[in-house]
Write a structure and sequence with these properties.
The chain is of the alpha/beta class. It contains 15 helices and eight strands. A six-stranded parallel β-sheet has the order 1-8-5-4-2-3, sandwiched between helices. The structure holds 5,6-dihydroxy-NADP and zinc ion.
Length: 388
């Protein structure tokens, strides 16, 4: 395994059907004033809102409600949360929802006591936190982002057509996250599959880098095999607890920093997908699925050995009588077939992207070095065109 690293993940996970029982224990350890952040109402419909507010009441907390955290949370909404957290001197932020609500809670946690504009400091200048951080806890209702056990906080600035993620350090990770796979049953099918592809892409973004023999790659292959297997069960029977629980746990491990250990990591599908999101406000996982095949087919010749391994170890492609190029191509074809089986968006035009946006989307895509080839602007446009 290459390099030296530190692995420290301080988030406590409570997993399973009884996971919410641990909330009161966690709340006993935090201050009295709790900011309760949630989305557009799915938790009210599912009954989770009632359960959580009941527990908060029993624990004697003073609750400040912050509803309406939208998918792809905006900088305006961030300012609203900061104002509420600061003026009420909240001690703790409880996020109940999907990745957007968890990300948002972390963004408010580092921004509420920030002396300057947090968008400029954390998202444009990518600076570290040097002010008070309000601790966060999450109750997760959607599997996908891994936000429940990492420091990611993605914020969208619609006026500037920018969607940017800041990956904060362990001091910003949720103190705890509560994961009950049953809460994901109410997700609409398109959100469930978008989350599944987000998980897959988090794994491939880290897997497709490096040529060394690395323990992390073997872990990644196991996670991908589990995800593919469970996803095929979940699309037929969304209430299959075994499949949904495996998907939820895989999501957590796909992006809780473990798979990046000893890896350069690529992340270009996410960089392009986020820029697509800034222009369309489309569902995160679908922005990734729409550009993935064009990207991976472009990059495959530069990382042929790894794409061949992906084909044989993840997709069971037979090798006899085939060239490495044919084996690698067959692996990508099988991934594409699986994506279609799930019903993912495979073309940018389906997300409302038009030709005149491509230049801006390419410009808004951060270019990173960790993958098998550093792209230039022209190549990003080429990939975007091939994704239309
Ligand atoms: O707002 P509500 O009413 O809750 O509805 C949400 C939302 O409309 C709904 N939903 C969530 N759980 C539900 C449910 N509906 C019914 N039943 C449930 N149990 O689903 C919709 C999407 O939710 P959202 O939280 O937006 O989805 P997701 O978890 O995919 O989060 C997306 C955000 O996370 C960022 C994305 O960029 C995007 O902004 N990401 C965060 C990352 C991180 N922290 O590391 C990494 C990811 O790559 C990603 O960039
Ligand atoms: Zn993602």
């Amino acid at each position: 395994m290459l390099g030296t690293f530190v692995y420290n993940n301080p988030t406590r996970i409570y997993f399973g059907e009884e996971a919410l029982d641990s909330l009161s224990t966690e709340l006993a350890a935090v201050g009295n004033k709790v900011l309760l952040a949630y989305g557009g109402g799915s938790i009210v419909k599912s009954g989770l809102y009632n359960q959580v507010t009941e527990i908060l009441k029993k624990c004697g907390k003073e609750v400040f409600e912050l509803p309406g955290v939208m998918p792809n949370p905006t900088v305006e909404k961030l300012y609203e949360g900061c104002e509420m957290a600061r003026s009420n001197h909240v001690d703790f932020i409880l996020a109940v929802g999907g990745g957007s609500v968890c990300d948002y809670a972390k963004a408010v946690s580092v921004s509420a006591w920030c002396e300057e504009d947090p968008w400029e400091k954390y998202y444009l200048r990518m600076e570290d936190v040097d002010n008070k951080i309000i601790p966060v806890g999450c109750i997760l209702t959607m599997a996908g982002t891994g936000s429940e056990m990492n420091g990611g906080a993605v914020i969208t600035n619609p006026k500037e057509n920018k969607k940017i993620g800041h990956v904060f350090g362990a001091n910003v990770f949720p103190k705890f996250s509560i994961l009950n796979p049953k809460w994901t049953y109410t997700l609409p099918q398109n959100q469930m599959v978008a989350g599944i592809y987000d998980i897959m892409n988090h794994i491939t973004e880290q897997y497709f880098s490096g040529t060394d023999d690395n323990t992390t790659d073997y872990i990644a292959e196991g996670l991908m095999r589990s995800l593919i297997h469970s996803s095929r069960i979940a699309i037929k029977n969304p209430q299959d607890y075994e499949a949904r629980s495996n998907i939820m746990w895989t999501a957590t491990w796909a992006l809780n920093t473990l798979l990046a250990k000893g890896k350069a990591t690529d992340w270009m599908v996410h960089m392009i997908g986020q820029s697509v999101g800034a222009y369309t406000n489309a569902t995160h996982g679908m922005t990734l699925s729409a550009v993935s095949m064009a990207y991976y087919r472009f990059i495959c010749p530069y990382g042929l050995g790894k794409f061949k391994r992906f084909a044989t170890e993840v997709w069971d492609v037979p090798t006899e009588g085939k060239t490495d190029e044919e084996i690698a191509a067959e692996g990508l074809n099988r991934m594409e077939d699986w994506m279609k089986e799930l019903g993912l968006v495979m073309h940018l035009s389906q997300l409302g992207v038009t030709e005149d946006m491509l230049e801006g989307i390419a410009q808004g895509s951060f270019i990173l070095d960790g993958g098998y080839r550093r792209l230039n602007q022209q190549e990003i446009i080429q990939i975007l065109k091939a994704s239309m």
